[in-house]
Amino acid sequence: MAQDLRSLVGSGSARELQEKLENWQRDYEMNSFGENLNRCCEILELNTAIQKRLFSILNETSREDTLNEGADTIKNRLLPSLASGGENSLSITEGSIGGELQLRGLASNQSCQLQELEDKLYATRMQIKQMEQDLRASCAEECKTLRQLQQLNDYEQEIQTLRNEISLLDAQKSLLQSRLVRSRSPFRCSVSKSRSAVSVRTWSPARAGRVNASHRACIIARFGFIYAQERLDAETLLRAFICDMETVQRIIYIAAVESFRAAKMAFWKLKISVKETLALDHVGPESLEVAALDYIARHKDLYDVCQSVQEVVCSMNVNPKIPYPPEVDFFLIRTLIRELCCLAFSMQTLIPPLDIALGVDGELFNRAMYYRSCDSDFTAPFVAYHVWPALMENGAVIVKGEVVTKKIVLCSRRRRIRSRSCSCGRRLRSGQVTRSRSLSTVRIKTSRY
Predict the structure, then answer these.
(1) What is the pTM of this model?
(2) Which of 174, 168, 170 minimizes the C-alpha distance to 191?
(3) Which residues contact 161 (CB under 8 A, 6 or more apart)?
(4) Is 157 helix (H, G, I), strand (E, B) or coil?
(5) pLDDT by residue (tens digit) across 102-126?
(6) How many whole angstroms separate alpha carbon 316 and alpha carbon 234?
(7) What would the mean pLDDT of 367-377 be, rounded to a whole number?
(8) What is the DSSP letter of 302?
(9) What SS3 state is found at 24?
(10) Nearest to 249 by CA among 117, 350, 386, 127
């Protein structure tokens, strides 16, 4: 025991411990957190080494105590100090373990929340993808139904045409036979007339009504398709040269109105000519008016649509509602004008015919006839301008149109009436510069396509 004590004193561990404590106290404020932690660990390691040697000396001393005189001293002095030190170390350990568990819990909660968000995002993407697939499928089904309806209408028209031609041939045959018999015998003439009356096809109003309803449905569907697709294509073409969206929409609306006017005028002239021709040898139970409409519906190639397109462009050139200057050739939207003319002509063959409602800027908004455009003021009661006309039948609205409503005071704009020489194809010479008087419209010259 004495040898161990001399060895402990001779090693100078206690002095070294005291010096490290003094140095740590002197540099504590200047050291960083990591340096102070390292100093503390070094001192604890040195103190642990000294305690181990002291416990070894204590064991040797207790062995030399044969009378158990030091048991009370160890019990009263050493054990309480050891217990308090154990409790402190245990509390520190528990605190560190609790902090570590808390950190792990937060990390796991964040991971769970992130996983939930990823799952929701994936589910949302799958829903969007499914909705896109359903939308494409519905569009394809609608196009397929429209094609089938158009094909059915074509078949019915072909069947009706063949039946009409057969009936006409039978009537002509009976007429020739009656004339031949009349020239020979009065008795045979009467028989021939009775046979010819029997051979004429009986006209069925129900069948004509079915054909008219099918044709009407196709025409209404075509009107909606022009509004949804070809009108937007025309807007895209005009926006390349005209910056003001209001001017573009006004031009398209005027083109629609003028197309219907030109087509109705051409139909009226053609119907007069057809009625005069059919009146010479018209036979059959239907009236001359119905026969003329049926003939025009079966011979739409008699309609000169190119002439109507030319008239529409000429009318737009002199229309005072289109702002100055006329730097855009309206033949740029000839595809839309041609489709509208053909559609308007076909509408006149129906019984009763379909037509569009003529709108006036500043009129009171009619909810039963028009929709408001998305850029409208929904509290304004008056129409600023029209985007698309409404489709009418005997004064009833079949398809609503579209208008723009704004809270503005309508005032007369500074407009220019174009040349009335009906020069429909306007071309600007190269290098020619025009000055625009419109504050909201910047247009570029273009030539006819």
Answers:
(1) 0.49
(2) 174
(3) 298
(4) helix
(5) 777 777 777 888 888 889 999 999 9
(6) 15
(7) 92
(8) G
(9) helix
(10) 386
